[in-house]
């Protein structure tokens, strides 16, 4: 978690750092009953009933991230525990990254750079790449970040469409009622929707096949939304052209089969990972806890 969280909390609260404890179990036995708040990172593993059972005085979980599929919301609700996340402050950063990954994947920028560094340029130019021109881009998820991606892509002159569970009256882009219908209408799919059981493997072999042989998948959502084995097959067999991924099924593990694919551009979950934006997220985590304990109202409850 960004250092801004501890810096803002330390002067006001007694702060424990569970990940620094040699024996977390003994720590929870000794201090669990007095813990009233948790600040958690999306990468720290699941936060649910097992942990809540050991923290009977817990009032609030402040999640460092807008996606909160790491927190069992039903278990929190059952105990009256408030959960907060960090919406809004990272939309532009993640949208920048999504568009960068889209361009890098289609124009093969990492491959071109590797070609130059390998000294191959003298032997002839880098092979011609596919193009963004004429593409129809489907946004799977059109929330805060999806809309920030769409605003950018309007400047690129591509057609846009989207799928969410509900059609948005104020949005002019065509809406498709299922991920499959969206994929059938597009050749480029950008996943930017929440993870968790409701969206698990929402991008499966059929959705990938519907994108077609020029198809490109960009996943900046969560690894769980894609059937990763089906994606590897589709990339291997040319069912789709290429994929750009920021997230994976079992982070930080990335399967060797993916690493071996020349038509995959792979990033280590860096969507919001700038100093500027991680600091803004950290301040919002701390401000949620401060608002809860000082005024009884968190700023951004989920
Ligand atoms: P929002 O809540 O603003 O938007 C979520 C969108 O997903 C909405 O359009 C919603 O539409 C749609 N959606 C939600 N559930 C479903 C479903 N079951 N089926 C289809 N569509 C669904 O979230 P954000 O835009 O702020 O963030 C989206 C996600 O991006 C986060 O939850 C997180 O997982 C991921 N993320 C990844 C980052 C990275 O580093 N790579 C950084 C930040 C976020 P509707 O309600 O109509 O279904």
Brief summary of the model shown:
It contains twelve helices and nine strands. Strands 5-4-6-7-8-9 form a six-stranded parallel beta sheet, with helices on both faces. The protein has a three-stranded parallel beta sheet with strand order 1-2-3. With about 300 residues, the chain is α/β, with parallel strands linked by helices.
Keywords:
302 residues; alpha/beta; Rossmann fold; 2 domains; 6-stranded parallel beta sheet; 3-stranded parallel beta sheet; 9 strands; 37% helix; globular; binds NADPH dihydro-nicotinamide-adenine-dinucleotide phosphate; NAD; NAD(P)-bd_dom_sf; D-isomer_2-hydroxyacid_DH
Describe the protein.
This protein is of the alpha/beta class and 302 residues long. It folds into two domains: 3-89 and 274-295, Rossmann fold (3-Layer(aba) Sandwich); 91-266, NAD(P)-binding Rossmann-like Domain (Rossmann fold, 3-Layer(aba) Sandwich). The chain is 37% helix and 13% strand. It is built from twelve helices and nine strands. The protein has helices at residues 3-9, 24-31, 49-53, 73-78, 91-106, 109-117, 144-154, 179-185, 205-211, 228-237, 256-259, 275-295; strands at residues 37-41, 60-64, 82-84, 136-140, 159-163, 188-191, 216-219, 242-245, 264-266. The strands form two sheets. A six-stranded parallel β-sheet has the order 5-4-6-7-8-9, sandwiched between helices. A three-stranded parallel β-sheet has the order 1-2-3. Helix 5 (91-106) packs across helix 7 (144-154) and helix 8 (179-185) packs parallel to helix 9 (205-211). The chain is globular and about 65 Å long. 39% of the residues are buried. NADPH dihydro-nicotinamide-adenine-dinucleotide phosphate binds at residues 66-67, 87, 90, 94, 141-146, 164-166, 192-195, 198-199, 220-222, 246-247, 269, 271-272.
């Amino acid at each position: 978690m960004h250092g801004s969280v501890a810096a803002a909390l330390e002067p006001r609260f007694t702060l424990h750092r569970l990940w620094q404890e040699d024996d977390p179990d003994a720590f929870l036995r000794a201090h669990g009953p007095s813990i009233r708040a948790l600040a958690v990172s999306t990468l720290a593993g699941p936060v649910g009933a097992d942990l809540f059972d050991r923290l009977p005085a817990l009032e609030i979980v402040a999640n460092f991230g807008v996606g909160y599929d790491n927190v069992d919301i039903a278990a929190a609700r059952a105990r009256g525990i408030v959960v907060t996340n960090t919406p809004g402050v990272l939309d532009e950063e993640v949208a920048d990254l999504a568009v960068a990954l889209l361009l890098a994947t289609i124009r093969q920028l990492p491959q071109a750079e590797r070609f130059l560094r390998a000294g191959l340029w003298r032997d002839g130019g880098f092979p011609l790449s596919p193009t963004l021109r004429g593409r129809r881009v489907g946004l799977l998820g059109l929330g805060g970040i999806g809309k920030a991606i769409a605003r950018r892509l309007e400047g690129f002159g591509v057609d846009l469409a989207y799928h969410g569970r509900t059609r948005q009256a104020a949005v002019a882009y065509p809406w498709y009622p299922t991920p499959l219908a969206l994929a059938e209408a597009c050749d480029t799919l950008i996943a930017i929707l929440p993870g968790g059981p409701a969206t698990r493997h929402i991008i499966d072999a059929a959705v990938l096949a519907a994108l077609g042989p020029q198809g490109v998948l960009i996943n900046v959502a969560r690894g769980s939304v894609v059937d990763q084995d089906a994606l590897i097959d589709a990339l291997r067999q040319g069912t789709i052209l290429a994929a750009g991924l920021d997230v994976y099924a079992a982070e930080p593990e990335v399967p060797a089969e993916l690493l071996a694919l020349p038509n995959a551009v792979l990033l280590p979950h860096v969507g919001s990972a700038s100093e500027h934006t991680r600091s803004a997220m950290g301040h919002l985590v701390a401000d949620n806890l401060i608002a809860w304990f000082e005024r009884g109202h968190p700023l951004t409850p989920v």
